[in-house]
Amino acid sequence: MATIRPGTQSALLVVDVQVGVVAEAGDVSRQIERIALAVRKARDAGVPVIWVQHDDEELPKGSAEWQWVPALVPQPGDVRVYKQFNSAFEHTTLEAELAARGVSHLVLCGAVTSWCIRATAYGALDRGYDLTLIGDAHIAKTMPMGDGEAVETRDIVREMNVVLQWVAYPGRRNRVVTAEELAF
């Protein structure tokens, strides 16, 4: 039986675009501009913006590295969720925040594609949410393969954007759009 979320509302999830998370990702200014555009569109449409922020030993809560990048700042009334695992759903208040707002559709952007974006995307679909990934608004880091080779950021982003379009869950819709195409 398919798990389908009650509610008809959308929410924008901005995941881990923190100083220490994106520091090693190279020039991410374009992706941050795309994320900022998505935040503006969500606010203009009255859609909740949920800021998911990671902390662990390497990224201690309250440290300079833990802070949001200067171009992205939560506003009063935005929801804040704190996490310690890759998925924004694991041991967090995210599901309760979504339920309180009648959210059944998540729009996802942020960092880092291979870990927290992927885990949150699959976690959302596993839990019955419809999902839209903003394909030009998630940030990847080059991934060393341990044998002297590496998967480059552009390939990681492309792979996630293609694969997510082909992932199928019963009763759920998932898609990938650009920040320009995004409409709430």
Quickly list its features.
184 residues, alpha/beta, 6-stranded parallel sheet, two-stranded antiparallel ribbon, 5 helices, 8 strands, 30% helix, 24% strand, globular
SSE blueprint:
Layout: E1 9-15, H1 19-22, H2 29-44, E2 49-54, E3 79-83, H3 94-100, E4 103-111, H4 113-126, E5 130-139, E6 143-144, E7 150-151, H5 153-166, E8 174-177
Parallel strand pairs: 1-2, 1-4, 2-3, 4-5, 5-8
Antiparallel strand pairs: 6-7
Helix pairs in contact: 4-5
User: How would a crystallographer describe the biggest sheet?
Assistant: 6 strands, parallel
Radius of gyration (CA) equals: 15 Å
| Structure summary, number of beta strands | 8
Average pLDDT reading = 95
Instruction: State the secondary-structure class.
Output: alpha/beta
Stretches with pLDDT under 50, minimum 5 residues: none
Largest sheet, spatial ordering of strands? 3-2-1-4-5-8
Distance between the termini: 28 Å
Query: What portion of residues belong to β-strands?
Result: 15-25%
Which bin fits the share of residues in helices? Answer: 25-40%
What letter string, H or E per element, gives the SSE order? EHHEEHEHEEEHE
**Shape verdict:** globular
The helix count comes to: 5
What does this protein look like?
The chain is of the alpha/beta class and 184 residues long. 30% of the residues lie in helices and 24% in strands. It contains five helices and eight strands; from the N terminus they run E-H-H-E-E-H-E-H-E-E-E-H-E. The strands form two sheets. It has a six-stranded parallel beta sheet with strand order 3-2-1-4-5-8, sandwiched between helices. Strand 4, helix 4 and strand 5 form a beta-alpha-beta unit. The protein starts with 8 loop residues before the first strand and ends in a 7-residue tail after the last strand.
